[in-house]
Design a protein that fits this description.
Layout: H1 2-44, H2 48-79, H3 86-115, H4 120-145, H5 147-154
Helix pairs in contact: 1-4, 2-3
Length: about 160
């Protein structure tokens, strides 16, 4: 009886740690998204009318792009398996290229959608701002993880 109580307590403890970690991960993602929205809003100088039309389109675009890039990351991670056959590796490479083409096609499709709600300068600024945000996020994450020095030493 005592053993089962200890086991149940341990399982509950591990479960609570997992829930807490997932909650913290979710909060971190929400903070990143809020920072991105703030930066884009600021840099694009959206009017209230533009913002009403822009954000639904952008969120749809960002969600679709996220799924494509997630698939690329998954295939890349799977292809690190050194026991894969050459046919599997070739198939993975082709699939990655197809997904990258989908990403480009998505950008083309959404550029025209963006141009219906914001002007061409704002669309250009959107792409620059996304690159800036990603660079800022990458740098911040590297500093937080202490990888900054390690990466400098690994680069040729």
């Amino acid at each position: 009886m005592k053993k089962s109580a200890i086991i149940i307590s341990f399982i509950c403890f591990v479960f609570s740690l997992n829930v807490k970690a997932q909650d913290e991960h979710h909060k971190g993602k929400e903070k990143i998204k809020a920072a991105k929205v703030g930066l884009i809003t600021n840099r694009l100088n959206l009017t209230e009318e533009q913002a009403k039309g822009f954000w639904p389109v952008y969120n749809e675009f960002d969600s679709k792009r996220w799924e494509i890039r997630k698939s690329i990351r998954q295939i890349t991670a799977e292809s690190r398996n050194t026991t894969s056959s050459e046919d599997k590796i070739l198939s993975d490479l082709k699939e990655i290229l197809n997904l990258k083409q989908k990403d480009v096609d998505l950008e083309k499709e959404y550029m025209s959608k963006f141009l219906k709600v914001i002007n061409v300068r704002q669309v250009s600024e959107l792409y620059k701002t996304e690159q800036l945000f990603n660079a800022m996020l990458f740098n911040r994450l590297n500093k937080k993880d202490g990888k900054d020095e390690k990466m400098k030493m690994e680069r040729p």
